[in-house]
């Protein structure tokens, strides 16, 4: 019975939903699921760290915090309080391209969730005290997750190595201390007015509800909100080569780390799925190519992570080798280059077994990733935002089923050349015992 509602045939996948748009530009999707008395209210805003203005890094992420600080109607602390008192919970996240806010709770809480999301969409009460408080929260988050966390500095260094200063992906979305400290109430309020509006958002309501009643409340709470004159998204030229080819840093870690990163095709464009599959071929299990060679046979690497990090305006393909303490990192890099060269030249193409195993794994992840109501809602948001249609599940599955050994070879040959890699080395800081 698992997922029987989702798979009407062996060849088709579907998440049944209704999609319409309000006069003010708000996209609305309704996803009915009456199996459990629960609901999800999920809002995606078309603004992410990509849209942080020059000198204002971290603004998109700062608003993920400010959005919970209250409005004139729902005071500071009441957003969580009202939701939790009714048995609900919420969270939010900021990515390079978008920001999302989601609320989950029992079905009878739906009207409260809708009202509060509509209220803070354009009615946020931003004060100097709230700004001061949340900027320090964000700065502390930067220290905990990036500056002081083992290997956390990687995510501050790699974007700057891959992208020029003029590119919106150049800085990590957490922002710099300098920019956060310089943020004024006027600039923060302007950012909110530019991006937080119904015509820059998609609202999905999922779960156990009466659609007529929900539509009436969508009209009641969201339809009166005024659209904004949205700021233009910057569209920089495509970047294919890193700005900084090689860099070495030290950190309080036990193992040296070699990070190799390449520019790669944007999300849902040709080559994106190929690199997802390639990641599995290289490091998807004990018998994967790099895993078998570097970890199990040569034993110069203790842990290996390979993945395609997909974004709207260009992606990155990452290979992270946590090496043994005495490993020669140049030799590790040479082995990686050798394996990729063999794939690019066709000397060692992906085999039918490797391809089938990797594609089956991605198919399984895609289907089983739709079990939860919130997961299905977020899947629709993702498709609508990046492809322009929520009805993309079949096409997404077809992307992976259409990958061939030849298409992988082509993207490796074009994108993963040694001279196009940014190479970051993280070495353990010297201690008294090692000095």
Short description:
The protein has 435 residues and is an alpha+beta fold. It contains 15 helices and 11 strands.
Give your account of this protein's structure.
By secondary structure, the chain is an alpha+beta fold. The protein has 2 domains: about 20-220, 2-Layer Sandwich (Cytochrome Bc1 Complex, Chain A, domain 1); about 245-430, Cytochrome Bc1 Complex, Chain A, domain 1 (2-Layer Sandwich), CATH 3.30.830. Helices cover about 40% and strands about 20% of the residues. It has helices at about 60-65, 80-85, 110-120, 130-145, 155-160, 175-180, 185-195, 210-220, 270-285, 290-295, 330-345, 350-370, 375-385, 395-400, 405-415; strands spanning about 20, 25-30, 40-45, 90-95, 100-105, 200-205, 245-250, 255-265, 300-310, 315-325, 420-430. The strands form 2 sheets. It has a 6-stranded mixed sheet with strand order 1-2-6-3-5-4, with helices on both faces. A 5-stranded mixed sheet has the order 7-11-8-10-9, with helices on both faces. Strand 1 (about 20) and strand 2 form a beta hairpin. Helix 11 packs across helix 15. It starts with 17 loop residues before the first strand and ends in a 7-residue tail after the last strand.
């Amino acid at each position: 019975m698992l997922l029987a509602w989702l798979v009407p045939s062996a060849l088709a996948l579907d998440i049944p939903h209704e999609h319409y748009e309000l006069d003010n530009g708000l996209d609305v999707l309704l996803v009915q699921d009456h199996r459990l008395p629960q609901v999800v209210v999920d809002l995606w805003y078309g603004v992410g760290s990509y849209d942080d203005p020059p000198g204002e890094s971290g603004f998109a992420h700062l608003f993920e915090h400010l959005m919970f600080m209250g409005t004139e109607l729902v005071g500071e602390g009441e957003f969580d309080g009202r939701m939790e008192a009714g048995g609900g919970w919420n969270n939010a996240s900021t990515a390079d391209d978008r920001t999302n806010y989601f609320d989950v709770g029992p079905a009878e809480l739906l009207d409260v969730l809708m009202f509060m999301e509509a209220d803070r969409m354009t009615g946020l009460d931003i004060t100097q005290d709230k700004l001061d408080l949340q900027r320090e929260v964000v700065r502390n988050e930067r220290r905990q997750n990036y500056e002081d966390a083992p290997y956390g500095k990687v995510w501050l260094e790699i974007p700057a190595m891959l992208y020029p200063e003029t590119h919106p992906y150049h800085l990590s979305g957490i922002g710099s201390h300098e920019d956060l400290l310089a943020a004024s109430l006027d600039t923060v309020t302007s950012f909110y007015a530019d991006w937080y509006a119904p015509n820059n958002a998609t609202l999905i309501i999922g779960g156990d509800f009466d659609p007529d009643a929900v539509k009436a409340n969508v009209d009641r709470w969201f339809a009166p909100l005024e659209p904004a004159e949205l700021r233009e998204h910057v569209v920089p030229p495509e970047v294919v080569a890193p700005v900084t080819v090689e860099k070495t840093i030290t950190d309080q870690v036990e193992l040296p780390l070699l990070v190799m990163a390449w520019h790669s095709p944007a999300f849902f464009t040709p080559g994106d799925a190929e690199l997802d599959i390639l990641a599995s071929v290289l490091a998807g299990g004990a018998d994967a190519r790099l895993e078998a060679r570097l970890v199990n046979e040569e034993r110069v690497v203790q842990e290996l992570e390979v993945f395609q990090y997909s974004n709207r305006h260009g992606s990155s393909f990452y290979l992270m080798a946590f090496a043994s303490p005495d490993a020669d990192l140049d030799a590790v890099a040479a082995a990686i280059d050798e394996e990729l060269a063999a794939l690019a030249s066709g000397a060692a193409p992906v085999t039918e077994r490797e391809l089938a195993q990797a594609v089956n794994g991605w198919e399984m992840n895609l289907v089983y990733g739709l079990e939860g109501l919130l997961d299905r809602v977020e899947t629709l948001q993702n498709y609508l935002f990046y492809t322009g249609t929520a009805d993309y599940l079949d096409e997404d599955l077809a992307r992976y089923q259409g990958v061939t050994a030849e298409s992988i070879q082509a993207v490796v040959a074009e994108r993963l050349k040694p001279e196009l890699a940014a190479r970051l080395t993280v070495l353990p800081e010297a201690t008294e015992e090692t000095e």
